[in-house]
TrEMBL record:
Residues 1-19 form the signal peptide. GO terms for molecular function: beta-glucosidase activity. This is Glycoside hydrolase family 3 C-terminal domain-containing protein. Residues 610-680 form the Fibronectin type III-like domain. Pfam families: Fn3-like, Glyco_hydro_3, Glyco_hydro_3_C. Keywords: Carbohydrate metabolism, Glycosidase, Hydrolase, Signal. Gene3D superfamilies: Glycoside hydrolase family 3 C-terminal domain, Glycoside hydrolase, family 3, N-terminal domain, Immunoglobulins. The keyword Repeat does not apply. It comes from the Bacteria. The keyword Magnesium does not apply.
Length: 795
C-alpha cells in the first residue's frame, strides 16, 4: 500500500528528480531486505510475452514492454503475441525513412509521439530503436535500422530515445551488437575484428548510451567474436557498463539466452520473454553450489527494481493516443524522408498547367506498402493511399487515370502492362508506383538479391517507352537495383512511409513541399559491388566481417566504385551553394576542440532544406583508414536567397582510429582534411589542419615485437643497440656509427622470440626478457607514419 502511495505521488511527472531517485533507491533497498532468494531469481525473467515479473506479496508491480520501433505494437494482453490483434497505433515511417530525414529534432519529436502513444496504451518500455549497422544490402531487417554509418545511426538513435523517454516511457536500444544478418540469427557468429567492432558496430550504441541513457539495452541473438551477446562480459560489463557508464538494465532478445548463469554474471539482467523455469532452477542451483555469488544476483535485482519502480511511477493515467494529430505528424515526417534521386528537365514538381492528364500506375498507389514484416508490424490507426489523396487534394483541374500495373501475388505476371501502357500513352505524365512487396523484406529472412519483382521492372521500362515523362515512385525499405534508371525522367524514393506516407508523396509530387531527404545508405549499381558481397550471410554459423572497417561508402570510396546513388545523396527543387569554410585553428592538439564553419545559401527559387555533411579524412596514417568518415551533420531550412552559417565542433575522437591491439582510441599527429559535403560524392568545401597529438601510447613490446619496430623507433633504438650481436659490426662502414650500419633485412624482420636463435645465443632468452621488461613502461606520441600520403581523389 505504502508503495502505491509512493507511485501516485510521482504520477504525472515525466522525469525523475534527484529526490525521487533517492526515494526509489530507498524503496529498492527496503525491498531487497524482504525478498527471498527465489523471488529475487524470479525477477530476472519475464512474466509472459511482454511483462516483467511482479511480486504481489511485496507490492512489486510489473511493467509492460511492446515493439517498436516505428510504432507501438501493443498486444491485447501481456500474454498474447499480438500479431494481427494488436491495438491500433500510429505507424510512422520505418527507420530507413527516418534516417533519410537526417533530422535529429524531428526524430526526437517522433520519439515524443511514440512515448505519448505508449502512455495511452499502458506501455512502459518501447522496444527500439535499432541502431545496428546495415552491413549488407541483403540484411532482412535493413528497413528497421537507420544507416550504414555509425554516427548517423547513433545520433538518430539518441534523439529517438530522448524523445520517447521525455514522456516517462523507457526504450530498448537494440540489438547489442553486430546483429547484421537474419540467417541463423540465433546462432550466427559475427566474426569481426576488434578495431572494426569499435569503429563501426559499437559506435552507434556508444553514442546512444552516452547521449540518452536508454532504460534498457536489448542483447542480441547472435554471437560476437565467438560469444553470445547475452553472455559476453566483454560487451555487457567491460564496454557497456564500465567504459560507457551505462546505468540501465540489459534485457535479452526474445529467447536469446543460452547459458543463464553466465548471462547473469556477464551483466544481462532480464531474460525475455517467459518465466524461465528451467533457467531459474539453474540460477538457484548455481547460487546454492557457490558457482554464482548471490551478490551478483542482488546487484542485478536492485537495478531491475530501480527501472520497474521508475517506469511505474512515471506511468500516466488516461493519456490520449492523439490519433489524428499523430497521423498528420507522420505525414510531415515522411515528407522529410522522401528522397528525390533523379529529376531530369525539372519534370517534378508536377505543373498542373502543363500536365493535364496524369496516369497513375501500380497497385502500391492504391494498396500502399508502408512498413516491414516481422515484430515491428504496427496495426495502423488509419491508412492513406496515394490514388485517393491525389484525386482528393490535387485532382482539381486535371484528369487522372489508373491502372493496376502488376499483380502483387505473381511477380512474373506481365499481363497488366499493356493496359498501363495505354493509359500512360494517353496521359501527359505517368507516375509508376513500384518497389518491394512485403515478403521481400522481413525479419528472420535475408534477401537473396536486390532486384524488384520482374513485373515491376518491366512495367517501368515499358511505360517509359511510350511516355517520356515517366516518374518512378519507389516503395522499399532498403536499396534496390534500378535497371531502368536511364529510361525514366524522375525517381522518387519514398521508403516505407508509414500510414500517412501517401499524403507526403502527393505533397512532394505536386510541390507543396520541397523534398529534402538524403540517402542514409548507398544504393549499389549491382550486388557484386557491395562490401559484404563475398561474406554474407556467412556459412556454417560463422560470418566473416572481411570488409572490416570498409562498410558502406567507406568501401565504395576505397575501391573507387561508382554506386548507383551514393550515401548522403538527394536532390531538391532548389539549389544550395556552399562557401566560406573556416576552421578555428589550423594547428590543434588532441585536447582542443575545433570549430568548423561553413555558409550555405539557397540560390534557387523555392524554399528548401539542405543536409550538410562533415567528413574527416586522415591524409597520412599508421593504420589503413577510410578515405573519409562522416563525423557531423545538420539540416537547415533556407528561403530563396537566404544563407546561414553553420558551426560544427570536432574533438580528438573525430580524428581517432581504434587500436584493436592496445584497445584504445588513438588520435594520431598529422594532417587531416575536413570536408563540407552535399553527399559523400559531392564535396563542396575543404580545409586542412594539423593535429599535434600529446597522447601517450603504450609501446606494447612483447616477444612477438619485430626487431625492426624497435630499431625504427628512436625511443627504443638506443635501448636495442645494447642488444645488437657483435657480427652486425661487419655491416658498419668504416668510420661510421652503428646507426649508419646497413643492418640486414633478415635480422630486422624477426620477432624478438627468435633473437637467441638468429644470434646463435649471443643474445640469450633471459636477455630478451630483460629487453622486453625495459621497453614495457615506454610510451610514445602517435605520429609514426607507415602509409604513404593518399592522393587526393575527387569524385
Ligand atoms: C526481435 C526483437 C523484438 C522481439 C520482441 C525478436 O524476435 O528480434 O527486435 O523486439 O522479438 O518481439
Amino acid at each position: 500500500m505504502k508503495h502505491l502511495l509512493f507511485i501516485t505521488l510521482l504520477i504525472f511527472t515525466f522525469s525523475i528528480s534527484k529526490a525521487q531517485e533517492h526515494e526509489i533507491q530507498n524503496k529498492v533497498e527496503e525491498l531487497m531486505s524482504q525478498l527471498t532468494l527465489e523471488e529475487k531469481v524470479s525477477l530476472c525473467s519475464g512474466r509472459d510475452d511482454w511483462s516483467t515479473m511482479p511480486i504481489e506479496r511485496l507490492d512489486i508491480p510489473w511493467i509492460w514492454m511492446a515493439d517498436g520501433p516505428h510504432g507501438v505494437r501493443r498486444a491485447p494482453a501481456t500474454n498474447k503475441a499480438g500479431y494481427g490483434d494488436q491495438h491500433p497505433a500510429t505507424c510512422f515511417p520505418t527507420a530507413s525513412a527516418l534516417s533519410a530525414t537526417w533530422n535529429t529534432d524531428l526524430i526526437y519529436k517522433v520519439g515524443q509521439a511514440l512515448g505519448e502513444e505508449c502512455q495511452a496504451l499502458g506501455v512502459n518500455i518501447l522496444l527500439g530503436p535499432g541502431v545496428n549497422i546495415k552491413r549488407s544490402v541483403l540484411g532482412g531487417r535493413n528497413f528497421e535500422f537507420f544507416s550504414e554509418d555509425p554516427v548517423l545511426s547513433g545520433e538518430l538513435g539518441a534523439a529517438y530515445i530522448n524523445g520517447v523517454q521525455s514522456q516517462g516511457v523507457g526504450t530498448s536500444l537494440k540489438h547489442y551488437v553486430a546483429n547484421n544478418v537474419e540467417t541463423m540469427r540465433m546462432y550466427m557468429n559475427s566474426n569481426v575484428d576488434t578495431r572494426t567492432l569499435h569503429e563501426i558496430y559499437l559506435t552507434p550504441f556508444e553514442i546512444a548510451v552516452k547521449k540518452s541513457q536508454p532504460w534498457t539495452v536489448m542483447a542480441c541473438y547472435n554471437r560476437v567474436q565467438g560469444e553470445y551477446g547475452t553472455q559476453s562480459s566483454y560487451l555487457l560489463t567491460d564496454i557497456l557498463k564500465n567504459d560507457w557508464g551505462y546505468k540501465g538494465i540489459v534485457i535479452s532478445d526474445w529467447f536469446a539466452v543460452v547459458d543463464r548463469v553466465k548471462a547473469l554474471k556477464s551483466g544481462m539482467h532480464i531474460e525475455m520473454p517467459h518465466p524461465g523455469n528451467v533457467n531459474n532452477e539453474y540460477l538457484l542451483q548455481a547460487i546454492k553450489d557457490g558457482a554464482l555469488d548471490e551478490a551478483v544476483l542482488d546487484e542485478a535485482v536492485k537495478e531491475i527494481l530501480t527501472i520497474v519502480l521508475k517506469a511505474k511511477s512515471l506511468q500516466k493515467k488516461d493519456a490520449d493516443l492523439k490519433e489524428k494529430e499523430h497521423h498528420a505528424f507522420a505525414r510531415q515526417v515522411e515528407v522529410e524522408a522522401i528522397t528525390l534521386l533523379k529529376n531530369n528537365n525539372e519534370v517534378l514538381p508536377l505543373d498542373k498547367k502543363k500536365y493535364k492528364k496524369i496516369a497513375i500506375i501500380g497497385e502500391f498507389a492504391q494498396a500502399p506498402r508502408y512498413q516491414g514484416n516481422g515484430s515491428s508490424e504496427v496495426k495502423p490507426t488509419q491508412l492513406d493511399n496515394a490514388l485517393e489523396i491525389i484525386k482528393k487534394e490535387y485532382g482539381k483541374g486535371v484528369s487522372i487515370s489508373y491502372a493496376k500495373g502488376y499483380d502483387l501475388k505473381n511477380d512474373n505476371d506481365f499481363s497488366l502492362i499493356e493496359e498501363s501502357k495505354k493509359i500512360a500513352q494517353e496521359a501527359d505524365v505517368a507516375l509508376v508506383f513500384a518497389g518491394l512487396p512485403l515478403h521481400y523484406e522481413s525479419e528472420g529472412i535475408d534477401r537473396k538479391h536486390i532486384d524488384m519483382p520482374a513485373s515491376h521492372n518491366k512495367l517501368i521500362k515499358e511505360v517509359s517507352k511510350v511516355q517520356k515523362n515517366t516518374i518512378a515512385v519507389l516503395t522499399n525499405g532498403s536499396a534496390v537495383a534500378m535497371p531502368w534508371v536511364n529510361d525514366v525522367e524522375a525517381i522518387l524514393e519514398t521508403w516505407l512511409g508509414g500510414q500517412a506516407g501517401a499524403g507526403a508523396v502527393a505533397d512532394v509530387l505536386f510541390g507543396k513541399v520541397n523534398p529534402s531527404g538524403k540517402l542514409g545508405e548507398t544504393f549499389p549499381a549491382k550486388l557484386e559491388d557491395t562490401p559484404a558481397a563475398f561474406n554474407f550471410p556467412g556459412e556454417q554459423g560463422d560470418v566473416l566481417y572481411g570488409e572490416r572497417i570498409f562498410v558502406g561508402y567507406r568501401y565504395y570510396d576505397e575501391k573507387r566504385i561508382e554506386p548507383l546513388f551514393p550515401f548522403g545523396f538527394g536532390l531538391s527543387y532548389t539549389q544550395f551553394e556552399y562557401s566560406d569554410m573556416k576552421v578555428s585553428s589550423k594547428q590543434i592538439t588532441d585536447k582542443d576542440e575545433l570549430e568548423v564553419k561553413v555558409t550555405v545559401k539557397n540560390t534557387g527559387a523555392v524554399a528548401g532544406k539542405e543536409i550538410i555533411q562533415l567528413y574527416v579524412s586522415d591524409t597520412q596514417s599508421t593504420l589503413q583508414r577510410p578515405e573519409k568518415e562522416l563525423k557531423k551533420f545538420t539540416k537547415v531550412e533556407l528561403n530563396p536567397g537566404e544563407s546561414k552559417e553553420i558551426t560544427f565542433v570536432l574533438n580528438s575522437r573525430d580524428f581517432s582510429y581504434y587500436d584493436g591491439k592496445r584497445e584504445m582510441w588513438i588520435a594520431e599527429s598529422g594532417s587531416f582534411t575536413i570536408s563540407a559535403a552535399a553527399s559523400s560524392r559531392d564535396i563542396r568545401q575543404t580545409q586542412t589542419i594539423t593535429l599535434n597529438s600529446e597522447q601517450q601510447i603504450p609501446l606494447m613490446v612483447d616477444e612477438y615485437t619485430f626487431v625492426k619496430e624497435l630499431w625504427d623507433n628512436p625511443q627504443t633504438r638506443a635501448l636495442i643497440k645494447e642488444y645488437i650481436p657483435k657480427w652486425i659490426g661487419n655491416f658498419v662502414p668504416e668510420g661510421k656509427t652503428l646507426d649508419e650500419a646497413n643492418i640486414p633485412g633478415f635480422f630486422l624482420e624477426h620477432p624478438l622470440i627468435k633473437y637467441p636463435y638468429i644470434t646463435n645465443n649471443e643474445i640469450t632468452k633471459e636477455q630478451v626478457e630483460e629487453l622486453i621488461k625495459r621497453c614495457q613502461p615506454l610510451t610514445y606520441k602517435p605520429a609514426y607514419k607507415q602509409f604513404e600520403e593518399k592522393e587526393n581523389v575527387s569524385f
